Structure formats: C-alpha cells, structure tokens
Amino acid sequence: MNTVAPVQSTFELPIEAFDGVGDRAFGIYVHVPFCATRCGYCDFNTYTAGELGTSASPQSWLEGLRRELDIAAGLIEAGTGRVPTADTVFVGGGTPSLLGGDGLADVLGAVRSSFGVTDGGEVTTESNPESTSPEFFDRLRAAGFTRVSLGMQSAAPHVLAVLDRTHTPGRAVAAAEEAREAGFEHVNLDLIYGTPGERDSDLDQSLAAVLEAGVDHVSAYALIVEDGTAMARKVRRGELPAPDDDVLASRYERIDSALNAAGLSWYEVSNWATDADAQCRHNIGYWDGGDWWGAGPGAHSHIGGTRFWNVKHPAAYADRLATGVLPVHGSELLSTEDRHLEELMLTVRLRTGVPMSVLGPAERAAAEQAVADGLMLRRGDRLILTDRGRLLADAVVRSIAAA
C-alpha cells in the first residue's frame, strides 16, 4: 500500500527519492491558475478575477513561483549535491497566455535562474487562441520558448458554445499560423470530441481546420463530464445528453484516419505527431517515469517515487511562500507495486508499448489473451495496442493489472 502524508507546514523528500535524480529525464511544470472565464466542462484548478478578488494576483503568484523554484532547487541540491538542469519546461493552466509575452518570459526566467534549462531543451506554453497575437509569439520565441500548444477544441460555433469556449472558430488556425511565422517549428492544437450536439460533419470541419493550420502535433481527448462542473449539472438536469461511448469510439477512429492520411501518426493514445522531433518530450517524461517538479497552486510533482502536491488556492500558495515554506499540501510514497502499476498504465498507452520483461507470469498470460483477442500485438519483446485496442486501452490495462 502507498503511504499518504497529511497536510504539512514543512516538507522533506525521503533520502531514497534522491537516488538517480538528474540521471533520469527532469522537467519543470508551472501551473498558471488564471482564466478570463470558466469553461463549463473544466475541473482544473483555475480562478477568474472575480473569484479571486483582491486575495491574489499574477504578481503575487509570480513572486511565489520564484520562491518555490529557488527553495525546490536548494532542497534537491541538499539531497544530491547538485541542481538538476531541466530538460523540459511546460507552462500550463489555466490560461498562461493571459500573462502576456513579457509575463511568460518572466516565468521562464525564474526557471532558468533556479534550475536552468539544457541546451536544446523543450520549452512549451499552453495558450488560448483569443489571448495571442503575432507580437505575443515573437516575444515567446525571443524569450526561448520552443513549442506552443493552442486550445482549439472545435471549429464548430455551436460546439464551442456548449463548451463555453470564448474564441471564434477560425482564431485557433490563425494563431497557429502566427506561431509558425514567428519561428515555432513545433505547434500543437488540442481537440475535444464527443461534445453534446457535435455531429460527424462538425468533427470533419474541425479536422479540416487543423490540417489547414499545418501543425506538427495534435492532441485529441474525448469529452469527460467531471463531477462538480457546470456541464455535469446540465447533464444531471437533462439539459444536455451524456457523451455516448459508441459515438466517442467512432469519433476517435475518424480522427485517427484523418490525421494518419495527413502524415501524423499516433505515439500515445491521445497524441499524434509528424515525427519523433514533434512529439512532446515533457509528456514523454511523465509517461516514461521521469522526475518533475510541479510549481504553482495545485501543481503535482514526482521525484524518485515520491509524489506530492501543492495547496490549491493562489492566496494560500503565496502566503506559504512569503514565509519561506514550500506550499506542499500532501505527499504520497509510491510502493514497488504502485510504481509497477503506474508503469503499466502509462507504457501500454504508448506506441512503443510495454516490455514483456516487466510483466509477471499472470500478467503475461493476461497480455497473451489480449493478443488473442486482437487488442494487442507482439513486436519483439514488446506488446503494443492494436487500432481496436486503443479504443479499449483502459480495459486492457485493467485486465493485465488484475491478473
């Protein structure tokens, strides 16, 4: 069983967590908790200006972020004798683009000041198409960002309305083109499929827009109605139908077919890229069991088999750091069994597959059954999901893990 620590005013990593830190992939995730409006499907740790009032601001958040990164670097240096340089940086949210180009440059400057970034490191920011411009992308490139991920979701106006997205249908494509003109080789567009009221023709319209944008990476996620969201309340009241599993499977196949035909291949169940260089190295670090420090309100971290997470509210986050205390809210020491299960859950979803060598006898038997059922195929020592298996990836993982 894993061990979960309660809320704490101080935080220390167990000594064994430091083994190998800096030898594995090391990333920095920065969580920007600000949004202009709240989308009805979103359950991320985000806040609008009206919700925050005067309790927190981008400036107090940035001051806290600098302190957290400095303390984190010192903590790891004390345990290992060195500060690991970040191979990847990912700024997510929330809506990082609300900080503007100068604000995001300050964020990257804070990471460089504390941990540094390797030569050739991948530096990504998420952005809402509506809060970007050619000048914004120029500033990001000058600051050292190498990759941008744009929240498109759909090109159909009525689908965007159901999702409470505020950008106009064509803005995501225009923003992607602006990013490429600013010198970004790597641009991602996010899609959500299965929104109530979405038709096949709406998805086709979105896919045509994605391909028109000429991006080298696409992420596509089935809509999940999360408890506590405005959309969940509408579904519960019968105002919106719940997503249909058969429709979601059909839409996924439609997406995969269109992207494959355009030269984008899947490398993770929900992600497609033109080639290995276009793949998101930061996310691969998560999936391959690397280390990362998550900075910002509610951000999660993983160092050497210990997972920990910050307090959620920006005001509490800033207050903790103003006293020089890490804002860690809780932690979890992963057991050998936990780490094995996580490795299985993540690697199964990758095109590189899961090595047979990591499976126990009963798990191998379950995996062989998945092969017999046409859900996986064997390629050398690895088991890889088939096209049908990708539709049932979670069920495949459950069947192997339960063996």
From TrEMBL:
It comes from the Bacteria. Residues 20-265 form the Radical SAM core domain. It holds the Pfam family Radical_SAM. InterPro entries: Aldolase_TIM, Coproporphyrinogen-III_oxidase, Elp3/MiaA/NifB-like_rSAM, HemW-like, rSAM, rSAM_sf. It is found in: Cytoplasm. SUPFAM superfamilies: Radical SAM enzymes (SSF102114). Gene3D superfamilies: Aldolase class I (3.20.20.70). PROSITE patterns: RADICAL_SAM. NCBIfam families: hemN_rel (TIGR00539). Belongs to the anaerobic coproporphyrinogen-III oxidase family. HemW subfamily. This is Heme chaperone HemW.
